[in-house]
Amino acid sequence: MKKIFGILIVSFVLFVSCTNDLLEPFTPGSLTEDVALTKSSDLVNLVNSSMNILTNRADYVFSSIFTDEAAPGFNNGGQGITEDYVFLMNVDNESARIIWQSQYFALARINRVVTFADKVVAKTPADQQIINRSKAEALVLRALAHLKIMSYFSPNPKDDAALAGVLADRVILTTEKPLRVSNGVFYTAIHKDLNDAIAIYDANTAPAYAGISKTYYPSKVLAQALKARAYALKGDYPNAETFANTVINTSGITLANTQAQYNAVFHTHSESANTEVIFRLRRTVQQNVQTTNLNNGWVSVANRRNGSPFYEVSRALYNKLAAVPNDFRLNTIVHLTGTSPSLIDPNYATATDVRNSDIIVLQKHGGQSAVTAANGFNPDFMVSRLSEMYFIRAEARAAASDLVGVGTNLKAILDARFPTPQVLPVFANPQAAWKGILDERRKELAFEGFRFIDLKRIGTLAGATLDRDAAEYASGSWSFPAANPTNLPLSSFKFALPIPQVEVNGNALIQQNTGY
Hints:
Layout: H1 2-10, H2 33-36, H3 40-54, H4 58-66, E1 70-72, H5 94-116, H6 125-153, H7 183-203, H8 220-234, H9 237-250, H10 259-268, E2 277-281, E3 311-313, H11 315-322, H12 328-333, H13 354-357, E4 381-385, H14 386-399, H15 403-417, H16 430-444, H17 451-458, H18 501-506
Helix pairs in contact: 3-5, 3-6, 5-6, 6-7, 6-8, 7-8, 8-9, 8-14, 9-14, 14-15, 14-16, 15-16, 16-17
């Protein structure tokens, strides 16, 4: 932690805006924070800079490769196939390091917004409202970062006594070496931040962000959605359902219900206002670079067969998506038509060269609009969508053994993802209901960073395991014996990532997770 915050003091002058002038630098005349943060626009820029740090694809990519969403692509040159894909996890794992550090890098800036929002003197009453809104946005982002840390690094997020991460609810000095605290402490801090943010939003009169632009900024709706997510992670389903209901019934947001609208959410970000998205981390054309673009976590150049995909949609996931005809999500996730589309081999299971005969190209993030080039379109990072709230309601119904209620909430999503109303899902028992929820979350939230955490928190309730097709790890052209999903039971300690070695090097007393 000392290492992280020391780096951030040096880089503190690099403020970045999240508007169309995203790369315009803000350079204070002094490194002294009291001088650097003196007006509302400084806080706005620092919030935007924090969100820019959070646009890190590591957890989106890791979650897909370590589990069963992605499989090695025919152009794979070694990326991940000796590490994450074969479940190799240790203190030097790069994915774990980046997930940990990116959250704490952002928190270092977020905490300065929270602290200095109470010190900056407003020029006018309207200016005070902008200051207050910046503080609310920072509080929501702080809760989001802490929630992600706990989700990945806690051995058991349902246990208040289990360890989470280092609580960063203030500006931490470089001389400090804080230890990890319990999940209970994390949950208390997360809900306090979200409650405080909601109270500020309720009283705030700053001009509202309009149209799709409002999905680029934390909001009261996002705070409510994160409370639902946090309660679901804890297994507190009465409270989770309360906040999921609030979002569904009062946000004014509706599910995308056509192929065009669903594609627009992910491929062009041109969906109608108040459709599907609660919050996204925005990317601009000026930021287009292969090392940070979201889609380039799976392809080198473009989302097509000739775009050098080194990871593809897994066969097991494709089979789930294609099982029922006309599922919008299949065409959104898989590049099936147009320039250099996927190759779908109906006989893949017995193919002698499945690596080259069955190429299932991922296009969810950016579709065919994504271009890895200077000033080219690169996709935003989806953080929260309305469909997640319906899933949380379904989980709450499963926890209450209301199997009809589970089916009703899943049907609400399915009806929006097919051109015609779907049959109400029916479940014989609670475990089957949990499995139905997990399977639908897998299709709906694929490649959005949920799968690892979903398996961790509800996989056992569903009686589930990782679902990889043997053609992708035990065939003549793809032979990775260690990638057999039996090598990663859901009881594995690896579902709690290790505290990175770089953190331990700077803070020798920090508690490590069991198994590392």
